[in-house]
Design a protein that fits this description.
Layout (H helix, E strand, L loop, with lengths): L1 H5 L12 H9 L5 H5 L3 H8 L1 H10 L17 E11 L2 H21 L2 E12 L4 E12 L2 H15 L6 E13 L12 H19 L10
Antiparallel strand pairs: 1-4, 2-3, 2-4
Helix pairs in contact: 4-5, 6-7
Length: about 220
């Protein structure tokens, strides 16, 4: 059904055809995916190089990438939210960050993963973007530890003068939970937190994500 359903679409709708490529294709009279599929491959190679050949194959429904029976492991975990109203105070921003940290940490625990780098990104009501990150002393998937670091990063990133409409966090430098190295002087609070989180995750997985939430949320 490629000819009937794919070819009539604008060429911009094709995977890997961005604004710059679309502009070049239109110079050659190629406006639809069907026109790209029927275009001279030699011309596309000369004008667009390897990329031209790739999108020509895509337009014809062909792809030589190997199909993997297993999904690739996540290289990072993140979440963001566009707020219903402007974020104008640090307290409100921290509340939003806590909710994001809860979601990200729960996903990491589900996959038995930990992260060692916390990133925070923001967007103002004028659509200006900024981001900042922090390396942790060790990898973790404990919400409170991620939240503490995220707040530190956020406080360094935002001066409080411009209202925000989007906040997001991401955890990278991912490692498996069982390979995380612990300090010889680590107290029992980490293990206690891990047990509490796993119990909460189990309840929420069975009865719904909002069954157990923090009072501050």
């Amino acid at each position: 059904e490629i000819e009937n359903k794919l070819w009539p679409l604008p060429v911009r709708d094709l995977f890997l055809v961005g604004p710059a490529t679309e502009k070049k294709l239109k110079l050659y009279g190629i406006y639809t995916i069907g026109q790209l599929a029927k275009a001279d491959l030699a011309l596309l190679r000369r004008r667009l190089g390897k990329h031209g050949e790739t999108i020509w194959h895509f337009a014809n429904g062909r792809n030589t990438d190997a199909v993997s029976p297993k999904p690739q492991e996540n290289k990072g975990y993140g979440n963001s939210v566009t707020t219903a109203r402007d974020v104008e105070t640090k307290e409100y921003a921290h509340q939003v960050l806590l909710s994001l940290c809860e979601t990200v940490a729960a996903r990491m625990r589900k996959d038995n993963k930990c992260g060692a780098c916390v990133s925070v990104h923001i967007r103002t009501f004028e659509f200006q973007h900024a981001s900042h990150q922090k390396m942790l002393h060790g990898a973790t998937n404990i919400t409170s530890q991620i939240f503490k670091a995220a707040c530190q990063v956020f406080d360094e990133l935002w001066d409080g003068t411009t209202p925000l409409r989007l906040l997001g966090i991401a955890m990278t430098n991912i490692t498996r939970e069982e390979t995380v190295q612990f300090s010889l002087f680590q107290d029992e609070s980490r293990e206690k937190s891990r047990k509490i989180h796993k119990a909460k995750d189990a309840v929420n997985a069975r009865f719904g994500a909002a069954t157990i939430v923090r009072g501050s949320s």
